[in-house]
Amino acid sequence: MIDLLEQYEKMHDNNIMLSFKGEVTFDLVNSILKIIEERLNRTEEDLKTKKKVYNVLVECLQNLCHHIEESASEETFGTKTAILMVYMNDNTYHVLTGNYIQNKNIDHLRNWLDQINSVSKDELRELYKKILNNEQFSEKGGGGLGFIDIARKSGQKLNYNFKSVNDNVSFFSFQINIPKHEL
Amino acid sequence: MKSLSLSPTSHTPFVSFDAETGSIELKGRSTPENSVEFYEPIMNWLDDYVKSPKETTKVEVKFEYFNTSSSKCILDIFKRLSVLPKNGKKVDITWFYEEDDEDMQEAGEDYSDILGLPFTVKQV
After folding, report:
1. In A, which residues are within 8 Å of B30 by CB distance?
2. pLDDT, tens digit, 9 for 90 and up, residues A73-121
3. Which helix (H) or strand (E) holds A93?
4. Is B100 in Cβ contact with A139 (below 8 Å)?
5. Hey, which residues does A128 pair with through a beta bridge?
6. ipTM of the complex as predicted
7. In this complex, do A125 and B34 lie within 8 Å of one another by their Cβ atoms?
8. What span, in angstroms and rounded, lies between the C-alpha atoms of A142 and A70?
9. B100 in contact with chain A, both atoms CB, cutoff 8 A
10. What would the 3-class secondary structure string for chain B be?
């Protein structure tokens, strides 16, 4: 039997607010957002921080939802599940997501994330406006703005890595840190 | 022309578009599953409205949150409204943000900048 006390203490010590592994559907996204919002309402007094965390989470979850549909349709690995974790320490909120990605899509994603990480705050704002105004969005929306928005709202660099699973598929791990707003 | 009103939900905004008074109001949250689908009736209403608009159209936008997939739809709303001044009609757009919400303030400024349309951006 899994040692639940050990698991409980680990989650407690790491200040884990939410941990989930499974299929990410729109209904689930709404439930997760509701849970996090309630928790933030109880524990986070700063409205600005609360909004930033919520906003970043919305985009992270949307990315998961969107990506999973894409990869499921091509049936490489046959999994539609992802992992999500939210925890708080050192006055910083951390949102982590992980999902499978087809190897052929890695370069495109890596280039996009590196591009976002390489530009200044003002350049990021200009990039956002440019994409918002010029580029065609996909049917469900999104269109590449999600990661820019995450970078803008958090004011932090995007952390990520890809871990190879087999010839076709890798696991994409993503982490964004949102420092608490200094009052 | 019929007015358009939608009740807010946890992931869609309050919508009140009144052709008789030329008053357009959007407020709350916008994180729908499919933004294009949610905003479609709003776009259709606006396409009709701009054909026979009031002398002055008053627009009030008060978002608490919106996701990036809604952001393009919100731009499309303003794009439709931006034809009004070109046709000699007036459009007054006020973009509200909640206290200290610099992100939402910037979002209003960004829209105004993209469209070349003056917005009143102010704290609630």
Report:
1. none
2. 454 455 678 999 999 998 999 999 999 888 998 999 999 999 999 999 9
3. strand A92-102
4. no
5. none
6. 0.92
7. no
8. 13
9. yes
10. CCCEEECCCCCCCEEEEECCCCEEEEEEEECCCCHHHHHHHHHHHHHHHCCCCCCEEEEEEEEEEECHHHHHHHHHHHHHHCHHHHCCCEEEEEEEECCCCHHHHHHHHHHHHHHCCCCEEEEC
Instruction: Look at A137 and B65 and tell me if their CB atoms are within 8 Å.
Output: no
- CA angle at B70 for the pair A73 and A95, rounded to the nearest 5°: 70
Sign, Cα dihedral of A31, A52, A172, A14:
negative
**Contact between residue A102 and residue A172 where contact means Cβ atoms under 8 Å apart:** no
CB contact under 8 A, B68 and A142: yes
Is the model's pLDDT at A174 over the cut of 90? yes
Chain A CB within 8 Å of residue B123 CB: no
pLDDT of residue A142: 47
- Inter-chain contacts counted by CB atoms under 8 A, chains A and B: 75
